[in-house]
Amino acid sequence: MICFNCKKQIPDGAPNCPNCGAPIVPPVQVGKEIKFRRWQRWFFYVVIAILFIAETAYAVKIYSDNAQLLEASLRMQTSLSQAQGELDSAKAGMSQKDAELVKAKAQAVELQQTLDNRARELQQVSSQKEESLRSYEQLKANLSSVNAGTFNALLQMGVAASNQELLKIQVADTSFSGQDTDGDGLPDDLEVAFGTDKNKSDTDGDGYGDREEVINGYNPLGSDKLPLDQKFANANKGRVLLQMEGKGEAWYVNPKDGKRYFLGIPSEAVKALEGLQVAPNPVSNISATSGTSGQTTPTTATSPQQTASPQSVVIPLD
User: Fold this and answer.
1) What's the count of helices (H) and strands (E) in the chain, helices before strands?
2) Under-70 pLDDT residues of the chain
3) What is the tens place of the pLDDT at every residue in 86-111?
4) Distance between CA atoms of 92 and 89, rounded to whole angstroms?
5) Per-domain residue ranges for the chain?
6) How would you class 96 by CB atoms within 10 Å of its CB: exposed for 0-12, middle for 13-18, buried for 19 or more?
7) Which of 80, 234, 262 is nearest to 171 (CA)?
8) What is the DSSP string of 91-116?
9) pTM: predicted TM-score of the whole model, two decimal places
10) Which string of b and e fits 127-146 if b means at least 16 CB within 10 Å?
């Protein structure tokens, strides 16, 4: 018989093991104990297996959940990246809109300044127009006091012209009379009509005298040429042009050469017309007062060769 505790041979029927002193269990009871221990081991193995399977399943579940969570995290990160990109794009768009807004504001300010400048120019033009009207009224007042026959001749031939229109007609190369302060060959009154400086012989400082530039068709106030227009000059041949933007200076356009000749300011122009030979005389039907009856009778002025005609005016200046 073998001791269950120390596994050594002991005498049969001994109550205790002589070697280890452990009580001796009968074989039947030992078989039951062994069977019980065997079931315990199997139960333990089953429990271990169940726990292992459960832990494995739990680990698999955790792994699956983590994988899903990781995938969801990646999707969220991708979405966040896209949202960040859209946000950056929106910021860039807003920056561009801000730049466009700033540009639009600058353009609005520039437009407002342009409108203000146009308003000032319009006001200036209006003032110039009023000044021209006053000059015209003054011209009429000045002319109303001169000889009636010469006044009618000037009115028949006189046409109001702007400075820009006068620039289209070449100035004749002739001897000018009158005070010439700067000695450039242009009288002071003529320099006033041209807008040049009567105290400087070369107003624009380009090395050419004012008279030289005017006679040769160049602008004495700049580097460009005058806008001469022969067609316009031909259309005004034989006319007296009144410079309404100045002092009402009178210019005569000679029918022979199509150039303009300076007659002077209104009073001097009247004297010039009175001193010129008019053929035929443009003055007709001038009212004269009879010394005996007090009634007005029409009289007709004639040239040495012809009878006056109000339709034809020729003033030879050469």
Assistant:
1) 7, 6
2) 1, 4, 25-31, 135-157, 265-318
3) 998 888 888 888 889 999 999 999 99
4) 5
5) 148-299
6) exposed
7) 262
8) HHHHHHHHHHHHHHHHHHHHHHHHHH
9) 0.41
10) eeeeebeebeeebeebbeeb
